[in-house]
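User: I'm writing a tutorial on reading structure tokens. Could you give me a worked example: one chain, its sequence, then its tokens, then a sentence or two explaining what the tokens reveal?
Assistant: Sure. Here is the example chain.
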Amino acid sequence: MNDPSVILESVTLDLPVYDRMSFSLKSNLIRGLVGSGLKEDKGVTFIRALDGLSLTVRRGERVGLVGHNGAGKTTLLKTIAGIYEPTLGSVRTRGQITTLIDIAMGMNPEATGYENIIIRGLHLGHSLSEIQDRMDHIIAFSELGDYIGLPVRTYSMGMISRLFFSVSTAFEPDILLLDEGIIAGDPAFNEKASHYLLDYTGRAGIVILASHSKALMHLFCNKGIKLNQGKIVAQGEIEELF
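And here are its predicted structure tokens:
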């Protein structure tokens, strides 16, 4: 199998926000938060979420994305995952991608926990037989018990997070995209998940983590990238970027 890789070349991503009717007032309000990242085209206001970003990540690299809220960290993860398509530039990935970004992604609230394991597994690109092989492990790790047969809309956010985490980490990743905010629930499960995640990231070919935490960066990453207004403004040792 070829080594996993992530290659971005001059990636720009514009996300639509407001129509022309609300451009003046709301654009002024947003401009105070995101600087000069706004533009208007055919009556639609856009935020330039990523701006000419180029990046190459190879096997063995554990990259920490740092930057203030709105700098583009989670947007970059979603663009690498294929959730967002670049407005300009290209994203090329090699290897199976596992995403731990958004607990709602790929989940159907009307389906049962059991059914959502299958839905989420298929969403991650695994076959039905692969999902069935890991089903007992996923259910046991989630600690949901009989709730696994109930609709997800009856779950608390903590239960949804446990289900999401359990199915997403049940398969060996080539490329792991991770947002620090995905673990939620009772403290006992959080501790279990954190220990498991440390081992899980160690088995991944590539890890890209978005976080505000220097401690997490030191734990999971061997290099850092600092973003500001969708641009890479610094790269290097974690300690240098905080």
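What the tokens reveal: Residues 25-36 have pLDDT under 50 and may be disordered. Strands lie at 5-19, 38-41, 44-58, 62-66, 88-94, 97-100, 175-179, 206-210, 223-228, 231-236.
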